[in-house]
Amino acid sequence: MNVIRAVGRLWLVPVTLVVWEVATRAAEQPFFPPPSATLARMGEMWLSGPPAHLLLTEQAMDDFGPSLARLFAGWALAAVLGVAAGIAIGCSPRLSGYLDPLIHLGRAVPPPLLVPFFLALLKLSTPAQLTTIVFGIIWPILLNTIDGTRTVDRQHLETARIFGFSTAQRLTRVIVPAAMPKIFAGLRLALSLALILLIIAEILAGSGGLGYRLLTAQRTYLYTDMWGCLVVLGLLGYLLNSAFLLMERRVLAWHRNARQTT
C-alpha cells in the first residue's frame, strides 16, 4: 500500500521530464539542453567508471568526496556547538539575557558576505568553507534548542527534583528528551541550509567539489555539465532530507507514541 502511494505521488516526475524534453528540443537553445542529454552527460562524467569502484569515475570522487565531507563535517560541528550552547542558554536565564542580543545580531548577518573575511583570516579554502557553513547553519539549531529547553514542562522538572535527580540526571532524562522534537526540527533545517552554503562557499572559495565544478562549467559554457550539477544537487537535497526524516521518525517514535496515548 505504501509503495502504491509513493508511486502515486511520483507521477508528476515523468510527466515533467517529457514536457521538459519536448520543450527544450523545440526551442533548440544551447542554454537549456534536453534532459536526455543532461542525463547522458551525467552518466559520462560520474557513472562510467570500473565496476570495482561501483561505476564511479575519478571525476565523481573529486566532485562528491570533498563536497560531502565538508557538508557533513560542517553540519556535525554546528550540531554539537548549537545543541550544547542552546541547552546552556535555555537553562540559564542570566546567560540568555547576556547572549540574546549577540545571537540576534549574528543570525542577521548573511553568511556568504563573510566568505572573503574567512578567507583572509583562515587562508586555506577548506577551513574557510567549513566556517561559512557552521556560521550559517548554527542559528536554527541554536534557537530551536533554546526554545525546546525553555518549554520543558515544569511539572516534569518538579517531579525530577522531588525524586532527587541530580542536575546531570535532570538534563539527560528530562530536559534533553523533552527538547528533542525542536532540536531535530533545527537540525533538519540546518541540513538543507548546509547544502546551499556548501555550494556558495565552494563557488566563492573553492578549488574542488560540486560547487567548483558548477562554476567551471558555467565559465567554460558547458551548459550540459552545469545542468547535470544542478540536477545532482536537487537529488542530493531530496535524499538528505528523506534520510533525515526516516532517522527522525525512528528516534522520536517514543514521542509520537506518548502524544497518542495522552
Structure description:
With 262 residues, the protein is mainly α. The protein has a domain at 69-207: MetI-like (MetI-like fold). The chain is built from twelve helices and no strands. The chain has helices spanning 2-9, 12-27, 35-46, 58-91, 93-107, 115-122, 125-150, 154-162, 167-205, 210-219, 223-251, 253-261. Helix 4 packs parallel to helix 7 (125-150), helix 9 runs parallel beside helix 10 (210-219) and helix 10 runs antiparallel to helix 11. The protein is globular and about 75 Å long. The two termini are 29 Å apart. The model has no long low-confidence stretch (mean pLDDT 88).
Task: Please sum up the structure shown.
The protein has helices at residues 2-9, 12-27, 35-46, 58-91, 93-107, 115-122, 125-150, 154-162, 167-205, 210-219, 223-251, 253-261. With 262 residues, it is mainly alpha-helical. Belongs to the binding-protein-dependent transport system permease family.
Shape: globular
CATH architecture annotation of the domain at 69-207? Orthogonal Bundle
Biggest beta-sheet profile: none
CATH fold name of the domain at 69-207, please? MetI-like fold
Tally of helical runs? 12
CATH superfamily of the domain at 69-207, please? MetI-like
Structural class: mainly alpha
Oligomer: single chain
Mean model confidence by pLDDT: 88
What is the CA-atom radius of gyration, in angstroms? Answer: 23 Å
pLDDT < 50 runs, ≥5 residues? none
Query: How many strand segments?
Result: 0
The amount of helix comes to over 70%
Assess the beta-strand content as a share of residues.
under 5%
> Can you tell me the CATH class of the domain at 69-207?
Mainly Alpha
The N- and C-terminal alpha carbons lie at a distance of 29 Å
- H/E series: HHHHHHHHHHHH
